[in-house]
Automatic annotation (TrEMBL):
Name of protein: rRNA maturation factor homolog isoform 2
Taxonomic superkingdom: Eukaryota
Gene3D superfamilies on file: Metalloproteases ('zincins'), catalytic domain
Metal-binding in keyword set: yes
């Protein structure tokens, strides 16, 4: 199914092709490539706003996930009855926050990929 990556920030350059490739690898390893997944890259201001609204914490963060199937335990996969239910949900990546947390020699794209996929699954 589809993987949608949206970059709604301009603070940190994002190379979508390598990010997409790495996310697809993780999805294949986890066996969830038949599920839709949304990845939304945002800056500190926006991730802080979302964090305040949904978690009551007025600070920026690295990853916020919004699973489509809310009542699953960690590591449990949904058993969709309808085609539209093949959806993992959306992951908001605080790209600016993640970038500043990484050491200079780390590839923050790898951190983005693993953080986001692990959060929703």
């Amino acid at each position: 199914m589809s993987l949608v990556i949206r970059n709604l920030q301009r603070v940190i350059p994002i190379r979508r092709a390598p990010l997409r490739s790495k996310i697809e690898i993780v999805r294949r390893i986890l066996g969830v490539q038949k599920f839709d997944l949304g990845i939304i890259c945002v800056d500190n201001k926006n991730i802080q706003h979302i964090n305040r609204i949904y978690r009551g914490r007025n600070v920026p963060t690295d990853v916020l996930s919004f699973p489509f199937h809310e009542h699953l335990k960690a590591g449990e996969f949904p058993l969709p009855e309808f085609p539209d239910d093949y959806n993992l949900g959306d992951i908001f990546l605080g790209v600016e926050y993640i970038f500043h947390q990484c050491k200079e020699d780390e590839d923050y794209n790898d951190v983005l990929t693993v953080s986001g996929d692990a959060e929703i699954i």
